[in-house]
Amino acid sequence: MSLSYPRNGVVGGLLLSTCLFLLFFMVCCTPEEPIQCKSENTDCTITNSYGTFPDRSVCRAQSVVYPTTEEELIAAVASATKNGSKIKVATRYSSSIPKLVCPGGQDGLLISTKSLNRVLKIDKEAKTITVEPGVTLKELINEAANAGLALPYTPYWLGLTIGGLISTGSHGSTLWVKGSSVHDYVIELKIVSPGGPEDGYVKVRVLKDGDEDLDAARVSLGVLGVFSQVTLRLEPLFKRSITYTNENDSNLADQIVNFGRKHEFADIFWYPSQQKFVYRVDDRVPTSTSGNASYDFIPFRPRSSELLELIRCLEGGLDSSHNAEWKCGFGNLVTTLHSQALRGYH
């Protein structure tokens, strides 16, 4: 296979070739630890699972604590409040693109929920599950399934933690019922917040359905306190039947709403440069339905920071080449590979 570049794209072509060569030898892995400290748990920096924030700046904090119990979490919040330290909550992989976890300077404290990762209770009769905030979406789904239950609507990436995905308003894809936001299925929260001297510098509140503060706490971005327990309402376990169809995008705008109302988990992938979109026809079916595939969404598979850097390098090479034909060809290659990989199903 040979590649040609216009004269004004020689540098871009060389950069692109270099990136492709390095990319060939890269091996994906789980995201790196988002929090790195120079001396044990002090003089720390925090990033996200993408390896960088949009402004490419570094977020710093004076220290980090990793509570393993609710009692340790309460003590950490009380101590930081008494000392006048800024506090921000960090999750296992800190996947948010904005710098929501940055405490605003080197005098701040990060409280990581990484070790608050236990499933506390599953009530089959009430169809509820109670977990600590560091439990991942994958762990919750598996524990619920073992009890014959399911969280109906979820984001794609199973590495998200429950505390993180709820507080940032993460969602799946549906126009049905309440919608696809996970926080709409939270029926109880236990939250640890700063308090005054009369409270011992910490408050622990349990918010339930009907409490006026519950809606605010559910999507609080970690600024109203730290979740110590989350209870979600589940549904009986079910399977999903999924097929994909390719369509021309000339009438996309006219079809989106009707398509979403027709299929419970409907989703659309739009490829403007190719003037097409892909329907994901996705509906709930009984567990007795044949088939037992699993889903590993390709764009959200674990990638190292080095790999992400190489992808940005590749994109830069494509831009520098000024070769529209090659850029479109690369886009076609990506969609073809996704299709051949069954879009992540196996």
Structural class of the secondary elements?
alpha+beta
Spatially, the strands of the biggest sheet line up as 1-2-3-5-4
Low-confidence stretches: 1-12, 21-27
Helix content: 25-40%
What are the defining features of this structure?
Uridine Diphospho-n-acetylenolpyruvylglucosamine Reductase, domain 2; 346 residues; Uridine Diphospho-n-acetylenolpyruvylglucosamine Reductase, domain 3; 8 helices; 5-stranded antiparallel beta sheet; 25% strand
Describe the fold and architecture.
By secondary structure, the protein is of the alpha+beta class. The chain folds into three domains: 1-29 and 306-346, no CATH class; 35-112, Uridine Diphospho-n-acetylenolpyruvylglucosamine Reductase, domain 2 (2-Layer Sandwich); 119-236, Uridine Diphospho-n-acetylenolpyruvylglucosamine Reductase, domain 3 (2-Layer Sandwich), CATH 3.30.465.10. The chain contains eight helices and 15 strands. It has helices at 10-24, 70-82, 137-146, 162-167, 214-218, 252-262, 305-321, 324-340; strands at 35-39, 42-46, 59-65, 87-90, 109-112, 119-123, 128-131, 149-150, 186-194, 202-208, 226-233, 235-236, 239-248, 267-271, 276-285. It has a five-stranded mixed sheet, with helices on one face. The chain has a five-stranded antiparallel sheet with strand order 6-7-11-9-10. Strand 6 (119-123) and strand 7 (128-131) form a beta hairpin. Helix 1 packs antiparallel against helix 7 (305-321). The longest helix has 17 residues, at 305-321.
